[in-house]
Amino acid sequence: MTSVQRRAFNDAVTGFWSVAAPLYNIPFLQRWMYQPAQDEVIAVLREHGARRIADIACGTGILADRIQRELDTEAVYGVDMAEGMLKQARSRSSAVKWLTGPAEALPFEDGALDAVVTTSAFHFFDQPAALADFHRVLAPGGVAAVTTFAPQGAWAKLINSAESAAHMPPPEEMRELFSGAGFTVADQHRVKRPDWIQPFADMITVGVKG
Ligand SMILES: C[S@@+](CC[C@H](N)C(=O)[O-])C[C@H]1O[C@@H](n2cnc3c(N)ncnc32)[C@H](O)[C@@H]1O
């Protein structure tokens, strides 16, 4: 994708999510689609004892708010490009710091964070650029946890066609992307979900900055 195409794609994504924001918090959608990945991210953050944490493409702020309430943290940030999503996030929590910005150019100093996480949004990103910026903003030993939709079989071919702008990398490609950005891959596994939704099961990849 050229940079002009990438900008048009990002504008379309931002516009869509700004309009879709009010629908996003519907309980069954949250419970079946988004919560399983968020549960796994919380477990990774707890295991690593991260205290300065940013949730990138935070949407309406459900995960960042949970991180702030459920973990022992020093600072929690939620970052998104879509003002419509951030508007909902701001009304959810005043303890999280909500910031506008793209995943590929994060509003943090080098080495400022212990953990960067993102759920259900990586397919929208310029993936090498986003992972390079995750690596930049992490302190040594910091952790990046990324959940991605990882459709299997025929679904994978259909969704990941050459024409599709939103690319969902298969497991090996995710590991290569992490390594290419300078991370050591510490873990990768499928997110546990109910059987009926398994064809869409997502995957979590965890990388550590050396
Ligand atoms: C499906 S929602 C996921 C929200 C949240 N992470 C969750 O799991 O509930 C996708 C979000 O990604 C955001 N997004 C897409 N591309 C982005 C980018 N390049 N930088 C920052 N945010 C982005 C959209 O604005 C939207 O809020």
CATH superfamily: Vaccinia Virus protein VP39
Average pLDDT works out at: 88
Q: Would you count the extended β strands for me? A: 7
One letter per element, helices H and strands E, the order comes to HHEHEHEEHEHHEE
Q: List the strand order in the largest sheet.
A: 3-2-1-4-5-7-6
Query: Strand fraction band?
Result: 15-25%
CATH A-level architecture: 3-Layer(aba) Sandwich
Explain what you see.
InterPro entries: Methyltransf_25, SAM-dependent_MTases_sf. This is Class I SAM-dependent methyltransferase. Residues 53-142 form the Methyltransferase domain. Keywords: Methyltransferase, Transferase. GO terms for molecular function: methyltransferase activity. The protein is α/β, with parallel strands linked by helices. The protein has one domain (3-209): Rossmann fold, CATH 3.40.50. Helices cover 41% and strands 23% of the residues. It contains seven helices and seven strands, in the order ααβαβαββαβααββ. The protein has a seven-stranded mixed β-sheet, with helices on both faces. β4, α5 and β5 form a beta-alpha-beta unit. α2 (27-48) packs across α3. It is globular, with a radius of gyration of 16 Å. S-adenosylmethionine binds at residues 10, 13-14, 17, 34, 57-59, 62-63, 80-82, 85, 102-103, 119-121, 124-125.
